[in-house]
């Protein structure tokens, strides 16, 4: 597997991704291994070499000065895209056209139409393609799904998911860049995935948003889902994200809460990197106090950042000859992308035309804040 990165993401996302794959013992897996072949940057081979040093990659790890050389290397099977979201469509098209499998950092594209085109090309080329929503494969997410399947909640009626980053957008980001808005929209996508899983994958019926102002420093989306059972209550979900405030200041604030009338499942730490679950049970009634029936420990393996688990899923699917993952299927990516498109359109948030179009190839300049 080889990362395809850009200057602004390689110090974090690609480097942590690479470190995660070097030692399978950090994730307690022995059935899957990854041979890291190389990395390419859109800037220069010097930037690529700097990344290799940061990631402490093995000596055989090859530095490529451009993407074309990487995607056309005969020994590479699958490429991980860690470029800004604005470039995902063009990068994925390049890789698929070269007949290589793709694991693409979330969000898959900037709109649903681009996602549909990638799915069609992947099917035509018989290449595996998956959006790298890493939280889907983290151990705490696996445990959360087990709790739902075991009946820890009967019928989910409300889901709350929050992602506060605790940064200053005017100091930390280039506010002149239109793509800065994705820094809030992206975390809201996490919440949308969480809510869909909590609500039996019902389609959202209505969206209500707090108006955006400038760069969307704080955004809240109120969603209603159809009842998961006949004559059952509709499901309400609140997805909130803030650049200024932080979700989990001292480690005891639940970032995600899935609730019914007899309790809730809580997820702690960041919504994009959850660490442990908690189950609270209670009897129906306004004055009924709940009790903790299950309090999970930290499920992030020592030494692992967490990106390794999505890579393991990609490797297993490729070994089985699959084009998509049953855990992170194309339909899931498409539904959430259509949902986020609706949020943008209803709030008149648009990206530059060269980023939204379906034409390929289109040369896009690398920009530090296009996330």
UniProtKB/TrEMBL annotation:
Catalytic reaction equation(s): D-xylose + NADP(+) = D-xylono-1,5-lactone + NADPH + H(+)
Keyword Oxidoreductase: yes
Tree of life domain: Eukaryota
Segments passing through the bilayer: none
EC number(s) from the headed UniProt entry: 1.1.1.179
Keyword field contains Lipid biosynthesis: no
Coiled-coil features, chain-numbered ranges: none
Protein keywords: Oxidoreductase
Pfam families, per the entry: GFO_IDH_MocA
Domain Gfo/Idh/MocA-like oxidoreductase N-terminal, residue spans: 35-132
UniProt enzyme class: oxidoreductase
Record GO terms (molecular function): D-xylose 1-dehydrogenase (NADP+) activity; nucleotide binding
Record-linked PANTHER family: DIHYDRODIOL DEHYDROGENASE, PUTATIVE (AFU_ORTHOLOGUE AFUA_1G07520)-RELATED, OXIDOREDUCTASES
Membership in a protein family: Belongs to the Gfo/Idh/MocA family.
Name of the protein in question: D-xylose 1-dehydrogenase (NADP(+), D-xylono-1,5-lactone-forming)
Organism from which the protein derives: Aspergillus tamarii
